[in-house]
Amino acid sequence: MMRRLAILASLLPAAAAAAVLTTAAPASAALPDKVAFVQWNGSATVATGTLPATTTVVTGPVGRYRVLFPGAAAARGVVHVTAINDAPYWCQANTWGPAGLDEVVYIDCYKAGGTPAFTAFTAIFESSSPPTIAINGRFGYVDAQPTGALVSQFNSAGAVNSVTPLAVGQWLVKMPNLSTPGPVDGSLQATAVNVAPARCKVAKWSSSPAGQQILVSCFGPTGAPLNTRFTLTYQYQQSLYGAGWPPKYFGYLWNAPPLGPASTNFNSVLGPAVNTLTPAGTGLSLVRFPQLAVTPATVQVTATGPAPDFCNLLTSWFYIGTDIVVRDVACYTNAGTRIDSGFLISANSAF
Fold it and tell me: Does the pLDDT value for residue 11 go beyond 70?
């Protein structure tokens, strides 16, 4: 196992200087401490989307999965998960934690309306500890309770992230010193953590030399705002699990829609603004990450915007030559009708 591993208007830069960015440890380790991911096709793990290769998935009650990542045990960390289905399904984290040397993650999946249901999915677990050496980009995460209390957090600049409740189902997340030019840079992934059906998304965010400020919104199955625990990860010219380079192969893109600024479209091989999006029908978007087809790899999607829309992957991503192709990202209203909604997508290899 590798060890590299106001309200809306208030999302304005607060003045502060950027801090020197440093990497995660323990002292001799590269960022992150632990990372593991899995692609489940509904009956088996998929080798090209799973790390470690011996990861296992066991089904439980309808819609429940127990994922065991061998050798990936770590204190705290974060989980993100995306459903893979041609219908309006979503997945969320239930709980996770170490079991001896292994990390065990429980995932729950639902169809529109909140009925538990089995589906294919892709999930990632990552844990980092305080920084010690310089990294290439910016990286941070939070695992937050509904009150804003942090279960865990990481900031590659060594600062302390914060989560402030604003209203039912709405929080302002601040990641100080993760400095970027602004006004919006990088990418994010958000996941609800709950034993009952819940979804979370990025409503809005702003970037500046002072750091990142993100408005997270969460909803219940009826579309009403919901107070829930959630995870949120930020990446800027860095992989979704904080490492780079290696991995040499990762990329992200924001469909606002239309495409966000060049600073939200990055490819570790080719640079900014080269990943492409092609509309494929109402609520469907084909995304292509050129020259990133190195396996195993994971892909995650998070919806953006103020409404209770949600997004998943219509089918598993695949590889054409040296490119990763996602056909398609599918987005839905709370009722399950396809809609042209905003989303963030991140593709990341292990190497």
Answer: no
Q: With helix as H, strand as E and coil as C, how does the chain read?
A: CCCCCCHHHHCCCCCCCCCCCCCEECCCCCCCCEEEEEEECCCCECHHHCECCCCEEEECCCCEEEEEECCCCCCCCEEEEEEECCCCEEEEEEEEEEECCEEEEEEEEEECCCEECCCEEEEEEEECEEECCCCCCEEEEEEECCCCCEEEEEECCCCCCEEEEEECCEEEEEEECCCCCCCCCCEEEEEEECCCCCEEEEEEEEEECCEEEEEEEEECCCCCECCCEEEEEEEECCCCCCCCCCCCCEEEEEECCCECCHHHCEECCCEECCCEEEECCCCEEEEEECCCCCCCEEEEEEEECCCCCEEEECCCCEEECCEEEEEEEEEECCCCCECCCEEEEEEEECC
**How confident is the model over 273-278, as a mean pLDDT?**
98
Check residue 30 and give its pLDDT: 52
Single pTM value for the model: 0.91
